[in-house]
Fold each of these.
Amino acid sequence: MKSNTSNGQSATSVFSFENDKTDSRSGLSSIGLSVKFQPFKNISNFSVQSTFYIPVFKDTPGFYLYKRSYVFENKYFYDTTFGNGKYQFFAEVDFAYNFGEKSKDASPDENSTERFANNSLGVPISVFLSCFPSAKFTVFANAQQYNLYDFGNEFTQNYTLLGFGGKYQLSQK
């Protein structure tokens, strides 16, 4: 489910999930089929998830919702706990191939801007380090590097994300 707003709307206006054809658009963007498996029986903290996404939203010229791409994605997950259970490391590497019609080939009754990512490979690499000072309190830091490689649609994208946070468990339930 996606929701977008523009033209000076407030940051929380996306939660109204409106389609007013002036400055907001929302809807179910894609559906996907996933399979998650553990490829090596003796490495229980490594798993792979493969997903195929199909765009399902109606094309509306001039009103961007999401990338109109078929996506084949493979995610690789690894985690380990160390320091007598006081620390946990989690890593994820994704390979998401976006494919479909190029922006320049979209017909006039389609939104060509929703085809920006077609024929590209998105590769986010994410790591998290968690510390458990007590049974109810967690402190964590995370980092992600994302690269979108162009394979014929003349669009690339790169960013680095850094963050930290904490959580406190209020009750056992």
Amino acid sequence: MKDLIPLAGRTSHLLKQQKQTVAVAESSAGGLISASLLAIPGASEYFLGGAVVYTRPSREALLGITAEQMKDLRPSTEAYALLLAHAARRKFGATWAIAETGAAGPTGNRYGDAAGHACIAVTGPEGSEAVTTIETGHGDREANMRAFATAALKLLNENLEL
């Protein structure tokens, strides 16, 4: 996690400077996005909460995403990442939300995505949103989890710096 701390520190600085908050909905990153943000002193000023949304029941219980909202949508897609981000932002009342969904490995997921595939979304004020897909090309689970968390923090920072 040491490699995530500088990015989380930048996020912390930007959020504090702008007096804004963040919520996190992550899946394959397994809590690393939240943990890196919480590792920075003063996190209570900007971090409102996070959820590891790894299963259908957790998606429903933690973010209130219904079966109707999931109609014609599947996990590990950019559209799903955006849905997670919007739900987390709304649920926590945050200025910003980060969401991640993917396949950490060592094998791909049941939807046909290869290990190392992740979609990341950021939503923010005035309808701002950004989404990206990354492919690491390998099945190293731990390295993929770190890569997903890194990409998520970078995407948030890019949007905070606009």
Amino acid sequence: MVEIARRDLLIGGALLGAAGVGALARPPARPPAIDQGWFEAAIPSAIGAYRAATLAGLVLPLRDELSQQLYDGYVARAYVAPGVAPVFLLIAVGSVQDYALQLHRPESCYPASGFGIVPRGTTPLRLGARAVPGTVLEARRPGRADLVLYWTRMGEAFPTGLWPARALILRAALERRTISGALVRLSTTLGDPAADAERLARFAAALVTAMAPPARALLLGPGA
């Protein structure tokens, strides 16, 4: 455990040091921001048997000044369908990503709301023509437990951890190019973990299918 912590510290120091060197150069031109109104309208209010509804209980990331600079498009909704627990959807997309991406990762925002995290590994998602690795975890606090499924996109890659995401950002910085990014998080009340993960995966596939290509590309990259 000590060796793992030391290795992570060394990797983190190397990445941050290199990023500092890259920051000395003139940054590449920033692409146009995503229009928030268009993005909200692009997320369907009906997905299969589910309909958007106003419900309390959605765990939200901290909306500080830095996170508002990171993400141009931001949608948080609940979806209900007969006979099943609601699905909570959070999508954050940005035309430019940097080292603060982890502010919106569930491993950060759930603990900030008093939850403990139980990782359950990754699962392959078939989203349209794309095969995307999804991360599954349980979030628990007294009186509540959620099953969470999410994926992140950085450029055309789908990193499943913080350091791979930072490595992609660093590579782009050293190559003097910008990369866009997205985080898509789905959650539901925890019952049977395997069945809940499968239901969220089906919801994700239906969401992607229901979206127009320009909006779908924000979640899955160009050509999705």
Amino acid sequence: MTLIALVPMKGHSARVPGKNLRPLAGRPLFEWIVEALLGTIGVDRVVVDTDSDEIAQRVAAAFPEVEVHDRPEHLRGDFIPMHDIVAHLASALEGDVFLQTHATNPLLTSGTIGRAIEVHAGPGGHDSLMSVTPRRSRFYFENGSPVNHDPLVLGRTQDLPPLLEENSNLYVAARDVILASRRRIGANPVLFPIGPEEAWDIDEELDFFIAEALLARRTP
């Protein structure tokens, strides 16, 4: 079984301009996840898909062993679903299983990625894997009705049943599942928990400061 790790990277970012190349703790943001993937047992190939010549050149210079694919014109732009990009790559590349993550997940470790690969390959009757972050807090719908608690019983938040947030860190699926569904997950994914200290996603300026502080805690 050949497993290919996919890292899609756009040149344009609306909320944080140039974020994929922006320095984080002294290194371009994309280097953190690519290095983690290269160090993961079970990952056979790492492929970066991009619409940016600068990103392509920087990736090739930093990681010559990584394959860089030029994103076709019909899949470029801010409103292209990631499902379409992953399905295109699954059809274009010869591999049995595909793992997709983002350059904006710099805190993911090789150990966590490796465990996700093992869970996907293990028993359970699932056809894919999606990472989630458990959240224990008091949530409400917009109309004021509670989602996961009784407002009349003020229990401890740590005792609440967790809600599972899709954190966009990891998706794993076999090639035939992706091609059949045209999605990066199948009909019956296993939910793979990742704690917030590792699952932080870079979406806003504030996220850079938080991720940098969390990375600093790992450095002796």
